[in-house]
Write a structure and sequence with these properties.
Strand order of the largest sheet: 2-1-3-6-5
Structural class: alpha+beta
Order of helices and strands: HEEEEEEEE
Number of domains: 2
Number of helices: 1
Length: 270
């Protein structure tokens, strides 16, 4: 009985010892696992702590950046407000300037229209002035011509008073007997006699052909001689002897004394 009891106690102790050994080993295993888990958790905690510190730093940097951006926003908002107010002021000034430009433009257009009207008036006045100046020049020329003609007429009148002559006739002749001819090809002499009521010593004879050209000494010889001389009258013979055959047409002989025109004689030849 006692042996059985011993065996029971021994078996029980063995079982207890085995259980205790199992529990010890399990405890050790659990402790090792817990330690590993604690180490992992510590590492994870340290990592989270480091991450948290980084996040805090990043959050602090973000906060500072946000504060900086907020300050910039406030500054830019103020600048924008100032720029908006300035823009509104400039817009008002621009509207005022546009209104002034519009008024000045209307004034300019009015002045331009007035200038064009004045320019037309000036051009018309200038044209009229030019026309009047031309008329004045023409009138001066006419007055000068009339004065010249008047002077010539006065000279001719004076000459007619001083050198009155009987209506002379000029004739074309040929031969020694001065036979009258009418054909130019047969004429050898143009002859006329003038009775003057005053003494003339410097008569000049100018012969003009049908073409209006004054004939020179190479084309003929003009001469004058006194046939008779009385107290109040002298008779002068005027002659022109051509050196070549005359052409048909009207010949004109001018008799002058100095600057005084005495007579104009004409003879037509066939």
């Amino acid at each position: 009985m006692s042996q059985l009891k011993f065996r029971v106690v021994t078996g029980t102790l063995s079982m207890v010892i085995v259980a205790m050994l199992g529990w010890t080993m399990q405890e050790r295993s659990l402790r090792s696992a817990v330690k590993k888990d604690l180490d992992k958790e510590r590492l994870r905690t340290e990592s989270l702590t480091a991450e948290n510190l980084g996040v805090e730093k990043e959050r602090d940097r973000a906060r500072k950046q946000a504060e900086h951006l907020n300050a910039q926003y406030v500054r830019l908002t103020g600048e924008l407000q100032s720029a908006t107010e300035k823009m509104e002021t400039d817009a008002g000034r621009l509207r005022q300037l546009r209104s002034e430009v519009s008024a000045r433009s209307k004034e300019y257009n009015s002045l331009q229209s007035s200038h064009e009207q004045l320019q037309h008036q000036y051009d018309a006045i200038a044209s009229e002035r030019s026309r009047l100046e031309r008329m004045d020049e023409q009138l001066h020329a006419e007055i000068f011509s009339l004065r010249t003609d008047n002077t010539n007429l006065r000279q001719e009148l004076d000459a007619s008073k001083r050198y009155r002559y009987d209506s002379p006739m000029i004739r074309a002749t040929r031969g020694a007997n001065n036979k009258l001819v009418v054909k130019a090809s047969r004429a050898k002499k143009l002859l006329s006699t003038i009775s003057l009521t005053n003494q003339v010593d410097d008569l000049k004879i100018v012969v003009v052909d049908p073409g209006g050209t004054t004939m020179t000494e190479r084309e003929g010889l003009a001469s004058s001689r006194v046939l008779s001389k009385g107290k109040d009258v002298q008779v002068v013979e005027i002659a022109f002897i051509p050196k070549r055959k005359l052409q048909p047409g009207l010949y004109q002989i001018e008799v002058v004394s100095g600057e005084v025109h005495i007579a104009s004689l004409q003879v037509p030849l066939q």
